[in-house]
Amino acid sequence: MARFKFTISATEGAARTGTLATTRGEIRTPAFMPVGTAGTVKALYTDQVKQAGADIILGNTYHLMLRPGAERVKRLGGLHAFSKWSGPMLTDSGGFQVWSLSQLRKMDADGVTFRSHIDGSEHRLTPARSIEIQADLLGADISMQLDECTDYPCTHEEAERSMKLSLDWGARSLEAFGEREHQTLFGIVQGSNYPDLREASAKAVAQQGFGGIALGGLAVGEGHDQMCRTIDMTMPHVPEDYPRYVMGVGKPIDLVEAVARGVDMFDCVLPTRAGRHGQAWTWDGPINLKNAKFAEDLSPLDEAVPCPASQDYSKAYLHHLIRSGEYLGSMVLSWHNTAFFQALMQRMRDAIAAGEFKELRTELAARWEATKSKPKSEAS
Amino acid sequence: MARFKFTISATEGAARTGTLATTRGEIRTPAFMPVGTAGTVKALYTDQVKQAGADIILGNTYHLMLRPGAERVKRLGGLHAFSKWSGPMLTDSGGFQVWSLSQLRKMDADGVTFRSHIDGSEHRLTPARSIEIQADLLGADISMQLDECTDYPCTHEEAERSMKLSLDWGARSLEAFGEREHQTLFGIVQGSNYPDLREASAKAVAQQGFGGIALGGLAVGEGHDQMCRTIDMTMPHVPEDYPRYVMGVGKPIDLVEAVARGVDMFDCVLPTRAGRHGQAWTWDGPINLKNAKFAEDLSPLDEAVPCPASQDYSKAYLHHLIRSGEYLGSMVLSWHNTAFFQALMQRMRDAIAAGEFKELRTELAARWEATKSKPKSEAS
Fold this sequence. Notes:
The structure is a homodimer of 380-residue chains. With 380 residues, chain A is of the alpha/beta class. The first copy, chain A, has two domains: 264 residues, Alpha-Beta Barrel (TIM Barrel); 96 residues, no CATH class. Helices cover 42% and strands 20% of the residues of chain A. Chain A contains 15 helices and 16 strands. In chain A, the strands form four sheets. In chain A, strands 6-5-4-14-13-12-11-10 form an eight-stranded parallel sheet. The first copy, chain A, has a three-stranded antiparallel sheet with strand order 1-2-3. The first copy, chain A, has a three-stranded antiparallel sheet with strand order 7-8-9. In chain A, strand 8 and strand 9 form a beta hairpin. In chain A, helix 9 runs parallel beside helix 10, helix 11 runs antiparallel to helix 14 and helix 13 crosses helix 14. The radius of gyration of chain A is 20 Å and the shape is globular. The mean pLDDT of chain A is 96. Chains A and B meet through helix 13 and helix 14 of A and helix 13 and helix 14 of B.
């Protein structure tokens, strides 16, 4: 199977920067992938996503297979043409959304049968069907193996059973994927918070011959510190020459700490979801534009972010737009957040290249300490 | 009071084309003003509004006085700076929305007291307060006199009483407006569907010394044919050297027929409201992208409209976006419709200049016959 050329151009401690060269273009790493859930990064034009600095976006198999339907996307020219994104695209396997969104799901050894959250219709995903949807129908540059997402927290016994199932599905995914010149497939490490399971999973996935290795089962309520611990217990067992992808992560402080641990790729809906809810992430931390204190604040969101959304709109105007439920408020904040996350990745890439990542990490950790997620069991 | 220089460069029958020269820039007439209700043309960036061809946009006094508040807009630099629109801006008086949106309104000879539809708070508009909000606080280039919007249909007696009240309020508005070098004020003709009242109103308004004359009380359910009849009965009494503005109109066929009758300016929420509901206006008439027949239609909305929204997105993709409730669907359709309406105005301006408006009118009337609004009494 094709493994896209992954070049590490500089390292500092475990952190590294480089490029992953896909047929559709280079991805600068560490990379943050904006999420184009249903064929659109919510409230952004693709030009804005590109100009914000994103090299690659993510599409959701679960959403697209239900609507408009994967076969339909294929007939319409594939997901790139359909959604007007000509750069690299990664699709998830659908497994996470089956677990988090669908109704009446029923797992078996071969796959999962579930009902659509949209209309209740019945669907089935197997490792092979997920590959067919991602690689053949949507046309993803990078596909993800189907895995099982276990509940958090879960027992060692349950985590082990689930991890082994995902390993088996990884093998089936590779078989279904076969030889492809211009597309690749990533495997997924599972094992919940258990060091022995993460180690076993990482070692096994690394031997299966994927084009990249992802850490799954994070950003599911474990909190920032546990996320870091899980990355710490896994990374020693993921070979350095694989691009490493932590799925569904995260807040800016999560990205910094994961990059410090050698992670190369991320995706998260946070920039656009937060934007729709009035939240803007800045170098000084997150602010909520709904707050009355911004009603007459003429300063822009963050002049240090090289984006019109960040520089050209007053907080007072955005406060008004968000309070009034105006589209433009969600549009500008989603755009700004997308650009901010890309600016953060660029700053980390530059710092690693310059040997200054340690200083940057210390500075940002101090600034953003208060934003670290608590475990959901401790959240009120 | 300042009357902006109005130059008619060509006429064909009653139709005319020219420019209205405001301090903030020229308005090419006939002109369609996109409506920026609450300080934003819904779902569009101001750059897109400008690039679509709009020379002037409209702001709503009622919405802005309630939220964020007119005094606040003033403190924030006025409506132009607040909403990032540097071109000419016209504001309405607030009267129409008090009539259509507010609760518990109470008219008296001096003004109207009403409760906000947002939070129930009590507010009052008088002719002088409306001018203060529009010209002093929001900073409109063109303000509108406060008028009373009568129900439709209404008796001759009620229409006459109301029309006379509006005349009185026009005089009070002029007095409050006073002398201004860079701003002007338009009067409003009322009189429902009654020829004698429209004539009396038009003649009186024409003598009051406004900078332009609007026809009010249209687009309130009278239907296309009655709208044309009312314009017909009014226009002979509106001097030719005034810019003539029909408020709240309308569909493309309404614009064509009103231009044929000598109207110079229009405003309507139709392009953006229709866009949010999945409707696209094209040279071939309106289509609704929700319709299943567009699910695999790869053609663009209308290649003859010079706008990325019109040319670069497939109907199939827009169908998916609208069905999925995605922001981008509303954004692209609102943008396209805004550009289509501007393209229509440009085509009419060009046709009048070339002496070919009659042919264009005949062509478009035939194409769009089916879109003519029926009177609301006949609508099911």
